[in-house]
Amino acid sequence: MIKTAMAPYDLVRDLKGLAKQCRHMARAIKTVGVPGPRVTRPGFDALIRIIAGQQVSTAAAAGIWAKVEKACGGKVTADRLLALGEAGLRASGFSGQKTRYSLGLAEAAASGALNFKTLHRGADEEVRTTLTAYKGVGNWTADIYLMFCMGRGDVWPAADMALQAGIQHLHGLKKRPTAKQIEVMAEIWRPYRSSAAVLLWHYYGATRGGADKSPLAKKAKPKAKVRKK
């Protein structure tokens, strides 16, 4: 079993800290409550699942992933993905680009060039540098992996448009802020930026009458609540 280099972040604990230091975070929590857990098992299959979800809706990503899992016999491994091949991945709903990227990662994982046990011993920037060296893995994908698969607590995927829209809505801005602008705005949320991002995705979805916008969001509603002392 792959273990992360740090203990997973504690969403409830971190949101308590955010509520104390930022009135916007406090209002978001009061409005929509605490999101469900977002840490999932790390490894090759988790990385491919994130790639499958790039630039598609949460529902579409779930459907594609279900087909891939079924085609791989219930578990997505590098060897099974390679055996599935280009035709199998395309039949499961992967685009041509995502197919090539995923098979490239499968080759790297099967050969040992991409070693997830070694990867998880690295600091955030080391992990980001290693992953983004592969085609199809940009900063967003690496950041989502760091947050949801490795439980790193201070990751901020500023290029995520739903995150930008969540900040726009929460702050009452006329225009959606850019990635550079929300990088600056998020400084106040250190060292809890992962939890801030999860809350903002949840807030944007809930207040717009839709589903939670965070990648790998779970449907189950959490029982935990943040209470003021």
Task: Describe this entry's structure for a reader.
The chain is mainly alpha-helical. It folds into two domains: 1-36 and 153-229, Orthogonal Bundle (Endonuclease Iii, domain 2), CATH 1.10.1670; 44-149, Endonuclease III, domain 1, CATH 1.10.340. Helix content is 57%, strand content 0%. It has twelve helices and no strands. It has helices at 11-21, 23-32, 44-52, 58-71, 78-91, 96-111, 116-119, 124-132, 139-149, 161-171, 179-185, 193-207. Helix 1 (11-21) crosses helix 2 (23-32), helix 3 packs antiparallel against helix 6 and helix 10 crosses helix 12. Residues 1-7 and 219-226 have low confidence and may be disordered.
Task: Report the CATH architecture of the largest domain.
Answer: Orthogonal Bundle
Strand content: under 5%
User: Which term fits the overall shape?
Assistant: globular
Give the number of DSSP strands: 0
Q: Level of helix content?
A: 55-70%
Please identify the oligomeric state: single chain
Q: Mind describing the biggest β-sheet? A: none
- How many domains make up the coordinates? 2
By CATH, the topology of the largest domain is Endonuclease Iii, domain 2
- Secondary structural class: mainly alpha
- In the predicted model, the low-confidence regions spanning at least 5 consecutive residues are 1-7, 219-226
Q: Which helices and strands occur, and which strands form pairs?
A:
Layout: H1 11-21, H2 23-32, H3 44-52, H4 58-71, H5 78-91, H6 96-111, H7 116-119, H8 124-132, H9 139-149, H10 161-171, H11 179-185, H12 193-207
Helix pairs in contact: 1-2, 2-12, 3-6, 3-9, 5-6, 8-9, 10-12
